[in-house]
Write a structure and sequence with these properties.
The chain has about 160 residues and is α/β, with parallel strands linked by helices. About 35% of the residues lie in helices and about 15% in strands. It has a 5-stranded parallel beta sheet with strand order 3-2-1-4-5, sandwiched between helices. α2 links the parallel β2 and β3. α3 runs parallel beside α4. The longest helix has 17 residues.
Length: about 160
């Protein structure tokens, strides 16, 4: 029995960032689809999103893959606009895209993706969400250090 088996999401629209990704997204997107939701996966790779969506549609699920670079504010805005124009609403937003510190990356890179992009997408999603809509924010990078290392200023 799956975690969402007792819930019906028929008629609901769910957006999962990194929803076609190799980790959590590959678990939550099918679970939402099996519960009856129309699922939108969004990440940088249009090809991976479209391939995953096609596989899910072959299994009888309503899944759509969209490309969106969450580090780019214009791309976040375009994702919001596409969700609004194609689906007209959003009932579930799973903020799953995140990154850790990467060698050679701009020092603000992780915060731009893990905090700023997620916050912007959540703020844009709220007007699309009816009463009872859900936002789930999945992040684990900082959890690896808790409680031995303080949360960076502004992260919470």
């Amino acid at each position: 029995m799956g975690v969402l088996d007792r819930f019906s999401l028929k008629g609901r629209v769910a957006l999962v960032t990194a929803g076609a990704g190799p980790l959590f997204g590959r678990s939550i997107s099918p679970a939402l689809a099996e519960a009856g939701a129309t699922v939108i996966t969004a990440s940088r790779s249009r090809e991976r999103n479209e391939q995953f969506a096609a596989e899910m549609r072959q299994q009888g699920h309503d899944v759509h893959g969209l490309a969106s670079d969450l580090e780019d504010l214009a791309s976040i805005d375009a994702l919001h606009d596409e969700v609004l124009s194609r689906f007209g609403r959003l009932d579930v937003l799973v903020l799953n895209a995140s990154t850790g510190l990467q060698l050679g990356a701009d020092p603000s890179y992780a915060m731009r993706l893990n905090r700023d992009a997620q916050r912007r997408l959540a703020k844009l999603a709220l007007p699309l969400m009816p009463v009872g809509g859900q936002i789930v924010f999945v992040t684990s990078h900082q959890a690896h250090f808790f409680p031995n290392k303080a949360v960076p200023k502004g992260y919470a």
